[in-house]
Amino acid sequence: MIISGGYASSDGDSATTATGNSVTISGGVIGGNIHGGYAYGADGDVTATGNRVMISGGTVTGDVYDGFTEVGGAGVTNTAMNNTVTIEGTPTFTPTTGLYGGGYASDAPMLGRG
Question: Distance between CA 74 and CA 70 in Å, rounded?
Fold first, then answer.
């Protein structure tokens, strides 16, 4: 299971962008990963910017990504910038939970974090 504030996908060579999305968790048990914004591109440049995850309660057992990009082709540029994870209150995280702030880019060279 993935909880995502926004999801953008392209199967062609056009650019894909997930911008300005957010997820707020204030209680319950979240058993999967959380993405503020998720962008996937097969052959075009992929960008995740200005996405947010806010956690103030509950239990999180998966990983937390504020902005997440993934590409399927070679020679594609990943950009993940200006994304944030905010933790307030007393949420619970398992020992295997990963917190990725600033953005996370997989499968290709990445531009920017922060």
Answer: 11
**Residue 54, class by beta-carbon neighbours within 10 Å (0-12 exposed, 13-18 middle, 19+ buried)?**
middle
Q: How far is CA 8 from CA 14, 55, 65, 77, 90, in A?
A: 12, 23, 15, 16, 31
Amino acid type, 49:
T
User: At residue 56, what is the residue type?
Assistant: S
Quote the Cα angle for 76-68-3, to 5°: 140
Q: What is the pLDDT of residues 12-51, one digit of tens each?
A: 778 889 999 999 999 999 999 999 999 988 888 888 999 9
Regarding pTM above 0.90, the answer is no
| DSSP codes joined into one string, 39-90 | EEESSS-EEEES-EEEE-SSEE-S-EEEEEEEESSTTPPEEEES-EEEE-S-
- Comparing CA positions, the residue from 72, 64, 68, 98 lying closest to residue 81 is 68
Amino acid in position 42: A
Q: Is 15 helix (H, G, I), strand (E, B) or coil?
A: coil
